[in-house]
Amino acid sequence: MRRKLAAGNWKMNGLAASLKELAALAQAITADDQTGILICPPAPLLYRASEAAKGTGISIGAQDCHGDADGAYTGDISAAMIADTGATHVIVGHSERREAHHEDDAEVRGKARAAHACDLTAIICIGETEAEREAGNTLDILAGQLAGSCPDNATAANTVIAYEPIWAIGTGRVPTLEQIVEVHDHLRAKLIARFGDEGHAMRLLYGGSVKPDNAATIFKADNVDGALVGGASLKATDFAPIITALQ
Ligand code: PEP
């Protein structure tokens, strides 16, 4: 049985006062061993979030890391720095970074490797554009991104894959359950072909406009092991029902 994961990506939202949402979330949900809960706040909040989350069962993750261990990279953050805050996870290859920062699969793979070297779990994001879907290329595009972004040392313990169709992120549009099933089954087959049992055990999240009112439908798919949630993770009142739908 794969442990489920509800991961919240706060993106560039939140100040210290927002950390009250962690306590509110812990209060609003009934923790259960089968479901991990993760909040990825902006980097300046990582340490305080890790402290605030102690004893709540909520894990803390970053939204990006550099692929090198250290060096002259003004403004960047290394995986070791993230681990030093108490965080345990890091998102890599989010489509907003792939687009705005021109990150390609090789760079994302390097970031995942850097995360693993610091014992962080890497949440590797992949997703097709609307044009790619309309051209009928979704499965090939995703297989290519998965192959290129996942390092060879990926295991079920150190890697989570998040399928996030770019056209569904922040738009309120969601693929049909059939489309989600098709993609997740395809990704599972690719993971098993490459990683064997580890590929079977690796978590596959869906992300893109997950909300309290559509979460239960999305979670019906066998190979959906949880969600990466943006907007609806900012408030405990929105994120808690999504977690409950997963449990
Ligand atoms: C995301 O950015 O990872 C995301 C899924 O955003 P939203 O839930 O707001 O679509």
Automatic annotation (TrEMBL):
<dbReference type="Pfam" id="PF00121">
    <property type="entry name" value="TIM"/>
</dbReference>
<dbReference type="GO" id="GO:0019563">
    <property type="term" value="P:glycerol catabolic process"/>
</dbReference>
<protein>
    <recommendedName>
        <fullName>Triosephosphate isomerase</fullName>
        <ecNumber>5.3.1.1</ecNumber>
    </recommendedName>
</protein>
<dbReference type="GO" id="GO:0006094">
    <property type="term" value="P:gluconeogenesis"/>
</dbReference>
<keyword id="KW-0312">Gluconeogenesis</keyword>
<comment type="pathway">
    <text>Carbohydrate biosynthesis; gluconeogenesis.</text>
</comment>
<comment type="subunit">
    <text>Homodimer.</text>
</comment>
<feature type="binding site">
    <location>
        <begin position="9"/>
        <end position="11"/>
    </location>
    <ligand>
        <name>substrate</name>
    </ligand>
</feature>
<dbReference type="GO" id="GO:0004807">
    <property type="term" value="F:triose-phosphate isomerase activity"/>
</dbReference>
<dbReference type="GO" id="GO:0006096">
    <property type="term" value="P:glycolytic process"/>
</dbReference>
<dbReference type="GO" id="GO:0005829">
    <property type="term" value="C:cytosol"/>
</dbReference>
<keyword id="KW-0963">Cytoplasm</keyword>
<feature type="active site" description="Proton acceptor">
    <location>
        <position position="164"/>
    </location>
</feature>
<feature type="active site" description="Electrophile">
    <location>
        <position position="94"/>
    </location>
</feature>
<feature type="binding site">
    <location>
        <position position="209"/>
    </location>
    <ligand>
        <name>substrate</name>
    </ligand>
</feature>
<feature type="binding site">
    <location>
        <begin position="230"/>
        <end position="231"/>
    </location>
    <ligand>
        <name>substrate</name>
    </ligand>
</feature>
<dbReference type="InterPro" id="IPR013785">
    <property type="entry name" value="Aldolase_TIM"/>
</dbReference>
<dbReference type="InterPro" id="IPR035990">
    <property type="entry name" value="TIM_sf"/>
</dbReference>
<dbReference type="InterPro" id="IPR022896">
    <property type="entry name" value="TrioseP_Isoase_bac/euk"/>
</dbReference>
<comment type="similarity">
    <text>Belongs to the triosephosphate isomerase family.</text>
</comment>
<dbReference type="InterPro" id="IPR020861">
    <property type="entry name" value="Triosephosphate_isomerase_AS"/>
</dbReference>
<dbReference type="GO" id="GO:0046166">
    <property type="term" value="P:glyceraldehyde-3-phosphate biosynthetic process"/>
</dbReference>
<comment type="function">
    <text>Involved in the gluconeogenesis. Catalyzes stereospecifically the conversion of dihydroxyacetone phosphate (DHAP) to D-glyceraldehyde-3-phosphate (G3P).</text>
</comment>
<comment type="pathway">
    <text>Carbohydrate degradation; glycolysis; D-glyceraldehyde 3-phosphate from glycerone phosphate: step 1/1.</text>
</comment>
<feature type="binding site">
    <location>
        <position position="170"/>
    </location>
    <ligand>
        <name>substrate</name>
    </ligand>
</feature>
<dbReference type="InterPro" id="IPR000652">
    <property type="entry name" value="Triosephosphate_isomerase"/>
</dbReference>
<keyword id="KW-0324">Glycolysis</keyword>
<keyword id="KW-0413">Isomerase</keyword>
